[in-house]
Design a protein that fits this description.
This protein is of the alpha+beta class. Among the domains are: 50 residues; 38 residues, no CATH class. 33% of the residues lie in helices and 10% in strands. The chain has five helices and four strands; from the N terminus they run H-E-E-H-H-H-H-E-E. It has a two-stranded antiparallel sheet with strand order 1-2. It has a two-stranded antiparallel sheet with strand order 3-4. The chain starts with a helix and ends with a strand.
């Protein structure tokens, strides 16, 4: 019995050492070991290093905030003239204006819809030789019907800059302008924009390689249910 107890105590001691080793290994991350930040995963919660300032939350006294200002040349001016004098009931249609008090409302135009421009190539018969000449379509009208450059640019902007999913972009364009876009169309527009911007991308990469100092960062994202990392470098 004593020998068996001693063997069990030794086994428990070894197991405790193993547990402590595993817990210490699990607790290691990029902040307390040589492990890279990409190995931290999304479970680690960062702790802010900012110290409490003692100030109340919100805008501080003397802070220059952002407000909406009157514009010098509005798109539309609507005059509101009183019809009669409340004192003596005299009509005021032609009365002198002594003060103009201005207020402005910034609003989207009602009934915003797609502007559809039709191009017609005219077939014209020459009055001298009867030869028929055909006008040239512009570059934006390569087929019978297509979306313009501004529509394509907006869709790419929403996906790449605002990080909206393709389905959300399809829904937004449909709700606002009744555009029925296929997902394959959006993907092709993004690929086309990538090809057009490739020279600019190469110039940015060259400038980064030649910079004396670079700032690097990485952000954890979920891709297909797994952890992936988006790496960013800027000067």
């Amino acid at each position: 019995m004593e020998a068996e107890n001693a063997a069990l105590r030794e086994q428990v001691r070894a197991l405790l050492e193993r547990v402590q080793e595993l817990e210490a290994r699990r607790a290691k991350d990029s902040h307390n070991s040589s492990k890279p930040p990409s190995s931290d995963g999304l479970r680690r919660k960062t702790k802010s290093l900012r110290k409490k300032s003692g100030k109340k939350a919100g805008g501080q006294l003397g802070h220059r905030g952002e407000t909406l200002h009157l514009v010098a040349a509005p798109d539309e001016v609507v005059e509101h003239r009183p019809s009669t004098c409340p004192q003596c009931q005299t009509p005021l249609e032609d009365a002198e204006v002594v003060v103009r008090e201005r207020r402005q409302v910034h609003e989207l135009p009602p009934g915003v819809r797609l502007q559809i421009r039709e191009h017609q190539a005219l077939h014209v018969r020459c009055p001298t030789c009867a030869h028929i000449s055909v006008g040239d379509f512009p570059a934006e009208a390569r087929s019978r019907a297509q979306y313009g450059a501004q529509v394509r640019a907006l869709a790419v902007y929403l996906v790449e800059q605002q990080h909206l999913p393709l389905g959300r972009v399809q829904q937004l364009l449909s709700d606002l302008w009744r555009m029925r876009l296929g997902r394959g169309t959006l993907v092709s527009w993004i690929a086309q924009a990538a090809r057009l911007l490739e020279p600019v991308e190469q110039q940015i990469k060259t400038a980064l390689r030649q910079a004396a100092v670079l700032h690097h960062d990485e952000t954890g994202v979920r891709r297909g249910g797994r952890l992936a990392w988006a790496h960013v470098a800027d000067m």
